[in-house]
Amino acid sequence: MAQLIVSIIGITISAFALLVAFKASKASEKANDEATRLKGYYNGLVERNNQFMSGQTELQLNQTIEETKRHLMNVAFKIADLPESVDDNVKSMLDSLFKAAIESNANAYETACGLYIDDKIDKARFQKLYHIEIRRIIEDASFNNLFHPQDTSKYRAIWRVYKEWNHQE
Questions:
Q1: CA 60 to chain centre
Q2: Nearest alpha carbon to residue 113 among 104, 99, 126
Q3: Does 169 score more than 60 pLDDT?
Q4: Which of 8, 103, 145, 163 is close enough to 168 for a disulfide, judged by CB 3.0 to 4.6 Å?
Q5: For the chain, what percent of residues have pLDDT higher than 70?
């Protein structure tokens, strides 16, 4: 009889342990499902944050490029409005300002092209906005001293983007 009681207690404990293990398995499965859901939510937040940051970067690049273009135009207009009798020192100063404005504009494009190459901005949108401008600054004779010859130009990112978009290797 004692042996029967020990067997019943053993079976009861085993059944209870099996029930606890089953419930623990279900709880673990539920926790895993919740973790997967939260991971998806987190990944969505990260993706939206990355898009927001990319948008901010693109906006800032656009503002910088436009600002350098405005500065370049302002200096060009000042040079064009100079009377012929103006002092050579003034002409020389404005010429230096003009060259610096051209270089600032090229630097802004170099930064933008570097971000394009590094996948830090939307490539399709960047190409749509700047394809013609990139081609113009590479092919325009007034920029020759900055971009040509290609192998000595410090604007490697602009050249790389130009060649990619214009299928040159």
A1: 11
A2: 126
A3: no
A4: 163
A5: 87
SS3 sequence of the chain: CHHHHHHHHHHHHHHHHHHHHHHHHHHHHHHHHHHHHHHHHHHHHHHHHHHHHHHHHHHHHHHHHHHHHHHHHHHHHHHHCCCCCCCHHHHHHHHHHHHHHHHHHHHHHHHHHHHHHCCCCCHHHHHHHHHHHHHHHHHCHHHHHHHCCHHHCCCHHHHHHHHHHCCCC
Tokens of 53: 């940051």
Burial of residue 121 (CB within 10 Å: 0-12, 13-18, 19+) is buried
Q: Angle 2-80/123-139 helices, nearest 10 degrees? A: 30
Q: Closest Cα partner for 74 from 52, 94, 45, 53?
A: 94
Q: How far apart are CA 22 and CA 3, in angstroms?
A: 28
Residues in the chain: 169
